[in-house]
Amino acid sequence: MKQTILTWLRAGANAEEGVQLLTEAGAPSLTLRLVKTNPVANRRLMIDWLCKKYGIDEDYTYVATAQVVLFSERKPLSFRDEFPFLNDPKCPPELEALASRKFARYHNYVNLHKNLRDCTSTEQCAKVSRELINSYLENRMIWEELNYYQQHGSILGKHPIFAAFHRRKELLTLNVKQLMIRQKRLKNNIWRVQDELAKRDKPHLELERLARLQAYQSELAEINRLLGDE
Question: Global pTM?
Answer without folding.
Answer: 0.59
